[in-house]
Amino acid sequence: MQNKMMIEKLVQFTHLEKFYGYLPGMDEALQARLFGLDPEEYRAVKNRFDANARDTALELLEDGSLARRVDRLPFRAGQTVVGVGDSITDDLQSWLEIVRYLLQERRPRDGIRVVNVGLSAHTTAMVLRRFVPNVVASKPDWILCLLGGNDGTRVGPEPNKPQVSPEETAKNLEAMRRIAKEQTGAEWVWITPPTYDEERASTFPPFKMGQSVFRNDDIVAIGDYIREQEEPVVDIQEVFGMPADPGLQGPDGVHPSLEGQKAIARAFVERLAP
């Protein structure tokens, strides 16, 4: 049972086609085998997470006020909306997948294209390296940026350091924004990375094994930088609270639960369609 849960988590957050889709043999059958599954099992796991995203969107649309806000989201018919992020976006039941279904259910005739280029375990430096082929090449009309969580991750015993310094995080985000402005003309939306449940993260076995340390002070510093930007900001740190609401964070204290992803999607809609 434990092994099955671990494999399902890997499928939820690890999408090999985003890294190696250019390889001619990177088909569904190979991806399934790499997870120790046959294609039917692999498809079933992915479909369960996809169903979670759709069901969550339908739950949100039961709120008539929110449904009308979805109608007013500033995306025009035929536009391409690209979500840039780490595992919080790459998650098969992420806020972006929920937003995808909100648009499909409420505005099916608009043909709005939602592209998820979230990459699990990526820092801003790693996303910057892939920004042109992944984001610019998608020809976005809108770019939704939720990054920084992996930058603040510390490794090893005290004294330790973030993987990416706050100063370098700011430079990486500024570089992405500049490239997007010069090469796409896309509208830009910032989303602050959610706060952590530090206690839960400190006892999560994989994090303990890897000596990964997560501090809210680090993630809030990134949020402070984002809140200073001139473009629209969806402040998820305000939604999650400090420390994070345990009901919005998952078992590891770092990755939002489905309820947390739902809260991010709701906050996104409410901020862009007040």
Structure in words:
The chain is of the alpha/beta class. It has one domain (2-272): Rossmann fold (3-Layer(aba) Sandwich), CATH 3.40.50.1110. Helices cover 53% and strands 9% of the residues. It contains 14 helices and seven strands. The strands form two sheets. The chain has a five-stranded parallel sheet with strand order 2-1-3-5-7, sandwiched between helices. The chain has a two-stranded antiparallel ribbon with strand order 4-6. Helix 3 crosses helix 4 (39-61). The longest helix is centred in the N-terminal third of the chain and has 23 residues, at 39-61. The mean pLDDT is 97.
Outline:
The chain has 274 residues and is of the alpha/beta class.
Strand order of the largest sheet: 2-1-3-5-7
As for the CATH topology, it is Rossmann fold
Class by alpha and beta content: alpha/beta
What's the pLDDT, averaged over the residues?
A: 97
Please give the alpha-carbon distance between the first and last residues: 44 Å
In total, how many beta strands? Answer: 7
What is the overall shape? Answer: globular
CATH architecture: 3-Layer(aba) Sandwich
Number of domains: 1
Radius of gyration: 18 Å
**SS element count, helices:** 14
CATH superfamily: SGNH hydrolase
N to C succession of SSEs: HHHHHEHHEHEEHEHHEHEHH
How would a textbook summarize the main sheet? Answer: 5 strands, parallel
* Strand fraction: 5-15%
Helix content: 40-55%
